[in-house]
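Example 3.2
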Amino acid sequence: MTQAGNVQTSLLKQPGSVWAIAFACMVSFMGIGLVDPILPAISRALEASQSQTMLLFTSYLFITGIAMFFTSWVSGHLGVKKTLVIGLVLIVAFAALAGASSNVNEILGFRAGWGLGNALFISTALAAIVGAASGGSRQAIVLYEAALGVGMAVGPLVGGVLGNLSWRGPFFGTAVLMAIALVAILAFLKLPAGAPAPAKISIAASFKALRNPALLALSVTAVFYNFGFFILLAYTPFPLEAAAHAAGLDFGATELGLVFFGWGLALAITSVLVAPPATRTFGLRPVLFTMLGLLAVLLGAMAVFHEQLKVLIILVVVAGLVLGVMNTALTEAVMEATDLPRNVASSTYSGVRFLGGAVAPAVAGPLAAALGAAAPYWLGAGAVVVSILVLALAGHKLSHIGAAHETPQEIAEDVLLGEA
């Protein structure tokens, strides 16, 4: 058998615990884009404004971001399996409660609880897969990477299909899938008996990490970048639906799900297949500047063409290609920029960037109501330009990034920790 055949065999020949975690990872990442196709439906069914409905992203991301600052401390004290189980229990409970809600404010609160569970789960999942997988860390990373990509792509599609039946469908569907994952992890997850105990980490470690100038600069860059990212993700369903209605087309949850499936698939492909060779060939900082520049242009184009359905759909999918490269490159830059412990740097960066994403949906709705449908896109483009300026001004603090002081396997693991 060829070497490639051996790799494929070892990759697929994994214990049940690994497949249980991989399945749970996929469903967890589905939750990020799951509500996208049903935002207009929730707005109509519960008589909520666009601004109120987009807060479903804000409450989720805000609590996820805050919790990320403490997840390394929690897992260090409770251990991997307990942290995974607690995270899954919270997701199941709050996803089901969101589906049973009678008004948008209830959903907002339950989405916040969902975000807490998601933060605990996704920040611990990679460590669990690495500990349980056969074939070494590289095989575990590939499986985690595949779960992330499939979840990001399939989330909007599932949300669209179930949302076409009822806006409650995606919430109940997630609760059922995560309950299955919870049972599988309880039944199958057996971490190696000789595995070292998790390192104890100070509860303030993530906050102290922001004293590092390089990490602080990249975190601020990520805040403004993620503002543009979530303007695109959380706000775009409304201009898409409006453009379709203007063209005389029926554009419901299924159609929105298909558009964002294309977006998620593009993001997954470039994050896995394009970003690593691009950063090796051109360097991290040139790739970051290029992707940020392209994203600013795309958001500006969305502002100009937000009333043209076909053009807007194309721009959304193309943006997915850019975002996939950008996510991987920025996280790799964060990991290379400091000598901080990986889990501390990852949780700090993830917490800050999720907070940046939480602000965007809260601003987009009122801005669109006050200044028109194009205004949120222009603000998103401006935020991305600010991230370019921050990255440029911090150049003297980041001149060392891109130097190969870690092995490719370690860098890949770091990137995945940050993407979580």
